[in-house]
Write a structure and sequence with these properties.
repeat, 26 strands, Hemopexin, alpha+beta, globular, single chain, binds zinc ion, six-stranded mixed β-sheet, five-stranded antiparallel β-sheet, PGBD-like_sf, metalloendopeptidase activity, metalloprotease, metal-binding
């Protein structure tokens, strides 16, 4: 039996990768030698730096120090050695196909996001300091249900497949944010997608530039516009041209209020990314949208063949049959966990594993636990962000399941003693929005702090944890776990 969070509340699970990325970026900033004989090499480069928000546009006059700072910032966001020099690699990077939205403010917003992931709260002046030039009333939507319309169509692609690709792109975001999107064929809509060529009444700096360069751009809420360069060779399946699904997914991120991300391979990186085998949304994209659209923190409590939904206010639903939501599950399960990495549910019972996308059992499941190198009858299971994998406790040991390969990681199982202070035989686990892990056994709970890497509190969950929904109720013994 297990106790799990809903998908909605796992926004702070990505502490591990954050630390790693931060260290790499700091290293490249500090350790790269800075050249002293710097000079402006190409006026085009300054034009680029103006267009993308690294340099102000007043009079087009910049002193050497301003340009150097701008180049350094551009190199930082582009994962180039931070020299401040317009070297060959930097000029080449400026010619890479990318999104036309300015990078201005991305560094700062990202720093705030990392701060929030570490501390569980936003920087106090966060919303005021965002986006100088793009400052508009409302930088997020204040409703959860949004409509969109495809205003016109790209050349050489049939409307049917384009419509499906756009729907799939919106679905990426609705899967992780609790936002819902609906296409409307005509009339007013919150978000509009349109194809334009050259100048299209967005100002000279937003004019499209033909094939390559800026592929598309979009506006932050609540303008709700995403524009695509009609002159690009758009594709959905082919290798030549630019993939419309990937670019649309990126631009939708802007229409929801997301800035560019410096995390390599994230969808919100400013550079065009091909559709590949890796997941489209990275941990940073998920953290960003979940920080904007904070969720209701519904907790799912499992017991045998039923589950309860507990709202953030502690309201408890009636017991709901597991098999009604997840058909094909056995009558009673032993462990359940939601993974924000692939937005899937995992259930464990006896010698088998079930995996669901929403309520649909994934093909090839249930699988045998032994096939994945996992123990039978796990005590509990949970997704653990610092490792980026699923963790299963079983008696005095724990295993780590890689969700990409569906195989146990090498050198596991290891001894439970790695989890300082955590007892054997816990039968439930969940992660709270602050990133702390709660483990349960009978009436007791233990709180594990992933930053301190040890247990920091224990007690009686029914009395101490009001978000479980048992406070002020008749005590019902070990009814839930
Ligand atoms: Zn962009
Ligand atoms: Zn435009």
């Amino acid at each position: 039996m297990s106790l799990r969070d809903s998908p909605d509340q796992n926004k702070l699970w990505h502490i591990g990768p954050c630390i790693i990325t931060a260290l790499i970026l700091i290293k490249s900033t500090v350790c790269t030698p800075v050249s002293t004989d710097w000079r402006v090499e190409t006026p085009e480069a300054e034009g680029f730096l103006e267009k993308y928000g690294y340099l102000h546009q007043d009079n087009h006059i910049h002193n050497a120090a301003e340009v150097k700072t701008a180049v350094r910032e551009f190199q930082w966001l582009s994962h180039l050695p931070v020299t401040g020099q317009l070297d060959g690699a930097t000029l080449k990077q400026m010619g890479t196909p990318r999104c036309g939205v300015k990078d201005e403010g991305s560094h700062q917003v990202w720093a705030q996001r990392v701060y929030a992931v570490f501390t569980g709260k936003m920087a106090s002046n966060g919303s005021q300091t965002r986006r100088k030039r793009y400052a508009q009333l409302g930088e997020k939507w204040y409703k959860r249900h949004l409509t969109y319309r495809i205003v016109n169509w790209p050349r050489h692609l049939a409307p049917g497949p384009v419509r499906l690709a756009v729907r799939a792109a919106f679905q990426l975001w609705s899967n992780v944010s609790g936002l819902a999107f609906q296409e409307v064929p005509e009339g007013p809509s919150d978000i509009r997608l349109a194809f334009y060529e050259g100048e299209h009444n967005d100002g000279a700096s937003n004019a499209f530039d033909g094939p390559g360069g800026a592929l598309a751009h979009a506006f932050f809420p609540c303008r709700g516009e995403a524009h695509f360069d009609m002159a690009e060779r758009w594709t959905l399946y082919g290798h030549k041209g630019h993939n419309l699904f990937m670019v649309t997914a990126h631009e939708i991120g802007h229409t929801l209020g997301l800035e560019h991300s410096p995390v390599r391979h994230s969808l919100m990186s400013p550079y065009y990314r091909k559709l590949g085998r890796t997941l489209v949304l990275s941990w940073d994209d998920i953290a960003a949208v979940q920080q904007l659209y904070d969720q209701n923190h519904t907790v799912l409590v499992f017991r045998g063949s039923v589950y309860w939904m507990v709202s953030a206010q502690g309201n408890v639903s009636a017991p709901l049959p597991l098999q009604q939501r997840w058909r094909h599950l056995p009558l009673a399960i032993e462990a359940a966990a939601f993974s924000p990495l692939d937005s899937k549910w995992y259930f464990f019972k006896g010698k088998r594993i079930w995996r669901y996308s929403g309520s649909a059992l994934d093909p090839g499941f249930p699988k045998r636990s032994s096939q994945a190198g996992l123990p039978c009858h796990p005590d509990c299971a949970f997704y653990y962000a610092p490792l980026g994998h699923m963790v299963l406790f079983k008696g005095p040991r724990y295993s780590v399941l890689n969700l990409h390969t569906l195989r146990s990681e090498p050198y596991y199982p290891r001894r439970l003693a790695d989890w300082t202070g955590v007892p054997q035989g816990t039968n439930g686990a969940l992660t709270r929005p602050d990133g702390r892990l709660y483990l349960f056994r009978e009436q007791q709970y233990w709180r594990f702090d992933p930053v301190k890497v040890r247990m920091t509190r224990e007690g009686q969950w029914a009395q101490d944890l009001d978000w479980i929904g048992c406070r002020n109720r008749t005590h019902q013994g070990n009814d839930i776990l």
